[in-house]
Automatic annotation (TrEMBL):
Source organism per UniProt: Cyphellophora attinorum
Molecular function, one GO term: zinc ion binding
InterPro entries found in the cross-reference section: Matrin/U1-C_Znf_C2H2 (IPR000690), Matrin/U1-like-C_Znf_C2H2 (IPR003604), SF3A2 (IPR052092), SF3A2_dom (IPR031781), Znf_C2H2_type (IPR013087)
Localization: Nucleus
Keywords associated with the record: Metal-binding, mRNA processing, mRNA splicing, Nucleus, Spliceosome, Zinc, Zinc-finger
UniProt entry tagged with the keyword Metal-binding: yes
Keyword Zinc: yes
Official protein name in the record: Splicing factor 3A subunit 2
Length: 234
């Protein structure tokens, strides 16, 4: 490059570089610096598209040749995005580490791979003495996790997100046991009788079977259960 015949320069002084010449010289220096520190084969953000151009997946920029891409990697935009990506990954790692530890210091299982729904059987039952009607649930968990016991929970129609709009005439019984998917059973919205042996659950560790029986209160019990002067329900 001729540095001696630039406008405003003295003979032998090298001259005053124009803006374009300065940028070209800067890009060349950055490209040489990048060649010494970057291996494009190991760069996760380097991508050659179908038209032969080079793309930076981090900054979403397109470059006509590898020299332009290498100069870009040494620029402020790419370096800033690298710093932001590193900071975000550090925050996510610390958050995941905090979630994996319970408040008591016990490690909590996270992102358990589900293996499908368990086999189940539902039987209608009736109490011979009280004439209460109910349901008996039997679920099979042959591949249940070690030291895992199925848990149950009743959910109102307004808590679930599957049926919209929610129907107040129904409620849901949820039974969960890892690594199986949670089973939900749609029940009529009647009060479950939790007195005595009306409501019970049992886990057979040997056969890997879970049993649960629920009986609904009779219409008479529901009607007078909250009458003044009566003992509170259990």
């Amino acid at each position: 490059m001729d540095y001696q015949n630039r406008a405003g320069s003295k003979f032998g002084g090298g001259g005053v570089a124009s803006g374009s010449a300065t940028n070209a010289d800067r890009r060349e220096r950055l490209r040489k610096l990048a060649l010494e520190t970057i291996d494009l084969d190991k760069d996760p953000y380097f991508f050659k598209n179908h038209v032969g151009s080079f793309e930076c997946r981090l900054c979403l920029t397109v470059h006509q040749n590898d020299g332009s891409y290498l100069a870009h990697t040494q620029g402020r935009k790419h370096q800033t995005n690298l710093a932001r990506r590193a900071a975000r990954e550090a925050r996510e790692a610390s958050k995941d580490g905090a979630m994996m530890m319970g408040m008591s210091g016990v490690q909590i299982r996270k992102n358990v791979v589900k293996i499908g729904r368990p086999g189940y059987k539902i039987t209608k039952v009736r109490d011979n003495l009280t004439r209460q009607v109910g349901l008996l649930f039997q679920l099979l968990y042959p591949e249940i996790g070690q030291d895992v016991v199925p848990k149950i929970r009743f959910m109102s129609a307004y808590e679930q997100k599957i049926e919209d709009p929610p129907d107040k005439n129904y409620q849901y019984l949820l039974i969960a046991a890892e690594p199986y998917e949670t089973c939900g059973f749609k029940l009529q919205s009647r009060e479950v009788d939790r007195r005595g042996d009306s409501f019970w659950e049992w886990w057979d560790e040997d056969k890997k079977e879970f049993w649960c029986q629920i009986l609904f209160k009779t219409e008479r019990d529901e009607r007078i259960g909250d009458a003044p002067g009566l003992a509170p329900r259990r």
